[in-house]
Design brief:
By secondary structure, the protein is of the alpha/beta class. It has a single domain, classed as Ribonuclease Z/Hydroxyacylglutathione hydrolase-like (Metallo-beta-lactamase, Chain A, 4-Layer Sandwich). The chain contains eight helices and twelve strands. Strand 11, helix 8 and strand 12 form a beta-alpha-beta unit. Bound molecules: zinc ion. The site of zinc ion (ZN) has 7 residues, from helix 4.
């Protein structure tokens, strides 16, 4: 079985209201968080987890999100710097279908794009407050996910599955109805890519807590608090340690070039 390495690629940043990040408790201020593509190396071909936001312009039009992306943070630049041609990517595992995670899936024409079936169904007609983050084609949204124009197609997943030996795609609902986690076996143990179920290590408004992984709080924008709490308990057991949980939007992801 392959032993994998996980490389975070910095694909720009998003300015977000703190309350979206931490249980709705903090208001009035903003933080910058990175938009990350996770490259899994060591398999038969390059594998990606999530695909970052599409573009600064798309973020502004879709949900009035303020993003930034330097030329070096372009997903294609980041991938090529890591030695990957986007056309060689054969697998993209989406944690969920929010704009900042599925934005660039259209860039990978030769990849099978895995998503939980319930998430894909929900994308079409989410509750009203979720229309913008899903870039859903309904309910008065004047904007649709850019991959629609790119004619991207998806492989819906119905049950937890070991997609490749050592890489397991499993349901982890809470932040969205069909968010999935990805468990990856590496030399030091099993990592869990936790998507936005756990998007930062700790409360951004309590910087003194940052080195600690806080698995008792959920992000402000959450479909179901109960599901999120159950999923959090679950990922703590799947990961070899708390250090093996990799949140989706924490700048500390780049403290290490590669997780192995
Ligand atoms: Zn996100």
């Amino acid at each position: 079985m392959s032993v994998y390495r996980i490389r975070p690629l910095n694909c720009g940043s998003i300015s977000s209201g703190l309350r979206e990040y931490w249980g709705g408790r903090l208001t009035g201020s903003f933080i910058e968080v990175p938009s990350i593509i996770w490259l899994i190396e060591g398999g038969p071909y390059p594998i990606l987890v999530d695909s970052a936001f599409h573009s600064v312009e798309n973020g502004r039009k879709g949900g009035q999100w303020i993003c930034s992306r330097s030329p070096e943070e372009e997903p294609e630049y980041q991938l090529r710097k890591a030695g990957v041609d986007p056309k060689e990517v054969k697998m993209v595992l989406l944690t969920h279908m929010h704009w900042d995670h599925d934005g660039c899936v259209g860039m990978f024409p030769n990849a099978t794009k895995y998503v939980w079936r319930r998430e894909l169904q929900y994308w079409a007609a989410p509750c009203r407050t979720q229309v913008k983050p899903f870039e859903a084609p309904c309910l008065g949204s004047n904007h649709t996910a850019p991959w629609v124009a790119d004619r991207a197609t998806f492989q819906p997943v119905d049950e937890q599955s070991e997609i490749l030996p050592g890489i397991t795609y499993f349901p982890m609902p809470g932040h969205t109805i069909g968010e999935c986690g990805i468990a990856v076996k590496a030399d030091s143990g099993t990592y869990v890519l936790s998507g936005d179920l756990l998007s930062t290590y700790a409360c951004p408004g309590r910087p003194e807590a940052w080195p600690e992984l806080d698995t008792h709080s959920v992000v402000g924008q959450t479909y179901s608090l109960q599901m999120a709490a159950e999923s959090l308990r679950r990922i703590v057991h799947i990961a070899s340690s708390k250090k093996h949980i990799l949140p989706s939007h924490d700048p500390k992801a780049f403290d290490r070039e590669v997780y192995k």
